[in-house]
Design goal:
The complex is a heterodimer of chains A (280) and B (130). Chain A is of the alpha+beta class. Chain A has helices at 3-11, 42-53, 82-88, 115-134, 137-141, 146-155, 159-170, 208-216, 237-241, 259-265; strands at 13-21, 32-37, 68-71, 74-75, 97-102, 181-184, 244-248, 251-252, 273-279. Chain A has three domains: 11-102, Ubiquitin-like (UB roll); 115-170, Orthogonal Bundle (Serum Albumin, Chain A, Domain 1); 181-279, Ubiquitin-like (UB roll), CATH 3.10.20. Residues 1-27 of chain B have low confidence and may be disordered. In chain B, strands 1, 2, 3, 4 and 5 form a five-stranded mixed sheet that branches. The A-B interface holds A 77, 79-80, 109, 111, 120-121, 123-125, 127-128, 131-132, 135-136, 144, 147, 178, 190-195, 219-224 and B 2-4, 35-39, 63-64, 66, 68, 90-91, 93-104, 106-109, 127, 130. Chain A: Residues 218-237 have a biased composition (Low complexity).
């Protein structure tokens, strides 16, 4: 673990604005502005925004289960790390992520996630990541309270406590079998994930660029039409990634970064490396 | 090697592929586009969840479908009571996140049963395996 890198990644914040569109008699309350850690979730931030909205004197209280969130015209995902949402949002660097809190009936594809559900989702992601890395050897050997403790350190923004526990998941006896990495191809498409090893057969390290190239290659199950990357099999990693930037934590990740370095130092607390593809 | 596979008590191996007619009957969205390769999924009930007939527990799902839409469809298909929840698990270990596609499941967590890769999903109405 590279302490400096991990610490910087943990401390990275993004500006977020929550606007309530309630249509109440007094008009809408002032927006709620906040700086949020990239590793946190809208599921954790929303209650604070609502507390701010509910401070008004007109007596109308907005309840968590009566709202939904919209970002750029589509329902926001409350269970995706905010840093990943920010990097996908196609906004200028350092501008504000604008979340609309709506009181209209939620669309079918919006999923309200409260803190308890978020905790469960977080722990399931850790278990999945550990399954890829060690076939779940580490998490199965953990005591019952260890994963909830990991979650608490995320909720309480406690870097030292988090790493005291996360070390077990990262510094394993054996090398990682596969690296937990998710690539977001853009346009709100679901992430891509596959079995990506740390090393090539010749023993050299697989790079982030190579891993992303492999993830974006059409698999035998990909839909044959529409995608530009489905051109003949000669499509090399370079062609697929041509003029695309790999973004994680708002940083352009050099293609040649060893994937194992990214896994150990640039993973989000859920133990996945999340990479957003940006064109040009 | 694959300890996790053998972990749950499974008295019988994954059902052998049924003739095409039975598959079509078991698939909720009827397979119309022959060109598109679907992901073979086997469902296994755990705990108090309703049990599916053997034929009905083998499905062919579009690779781009996500766990979110699949779960919604399966609530009706498995006839989950409105007051009950529905949880899916992979490898008797973890629950895949809502945005996970079946392409991702087959690429990462396929079981090689015979010649055809298959995704086995355990389902439960209560949280299992922590």
């Amino acid at each position: 673990m590279d302490y400096e890198v991990s610490r910087k990644v943990w401390e990275s914040l993004v500006p977020v604005q929550f606007t309530l569109q309630s249509g109440g008699p007094l008009g809408d309350p002032l927006p709620y502005y906040t700086m949020l850690p990239r590793f946190t979730y809208l599921a954790l931030a929303l209650p604070k925004a609502l507390t701010s909205f509910n401070r008004r004197e007109d007596g109308v209280t907005i309840h968590l289960d009566k709202v939904w969130l919209e970002l750029n015209g589509v329902p926001a995902k409350m269970y995706v790390p905010i840093g990943v949402i920010y990097d996908q949002a196609k906004i200028e660097a350092e501008s504000i992520l604008e979340i609309s809190v709506k009181t209209t009936p939620p669309p079918a594809n919006f999923q309200m996630v409260d803190q308890e559900t978020m905790k469960a989702m977080f722990m399931q992601n850790i278990k999945q990541a550990d399954y890829l890395k060690t076939e779940a050897a580490v998490t199965q050997a953990m005591m019952k309270d260890e994963l909830p403790q990991l979650w608490r350190s995320v909720v309480n923004n406690n870097f030292d406590e988090f790493w005291a526990m996360n070390r077990k998941l990262m510094e394993t006896d054996k090398e990682f079998k596969y690296v937990p990495i998710r690539v977001y191809p853009g346009d709100d498409k679901p992430f891509k994930q596959s079995q990506i090893k740390t090393k090539k057969p010749d023993g050299s390290y697989i790079t982030v660029g190579e891993a992303v190239g492999e993830l974006l290659q059409p698999s035998s199950y990909s839909t044959p039409s529409s995608s530009e990357s489905s051109t003949p099999t000669s499509t090399s990693e370079c062609t697929i990634l041509k003029e695309r930037r790999l973004i994680s934590h708002g940083i352009v990740i050099p293609y040649h970064t060893p994937l194992i370095f990214a896994a150990k130092n640039l993973s989000y607390p859920d133990n996945f490396v999340h990479i957003v593809i940006a064109s040009n | 090697m694959d300890q996790a596979d053998g972990a749950p008590a499974s008295p019988e191996p994954v059902p052998a592929p049924e003739p095409a007619a039975a598959d079509a009957a078991a698939t909720p969205p009827p397979p119309k586009e022959k060109s598109e390769k679907k992901v073979k999924v086997v469902l296994k009930s755990i705990g108090d969840a309703p049990v599916l007939a053997k034929k009905a527990s083998v499905l062919f799902i579009k690779p781009q479908e996500t766990m979110a839409t699949f779960t919604a469809t399966m609530r009706r298909y498995i006839k989950i009571q409105p007051q009950d929840s529905l949880f899916f698990y992979v490898k008797s270990c973890f629950s895949p996140s809502l945005d996970t596609t079946f392409e991702t499941l087959i690429r990462c967590f396929a079981q090689e049963a015979g010649k055809e890769p298959v995704v086995e999903l355990q389902y439960s109405i209560t949280p299992a395996w922590g």
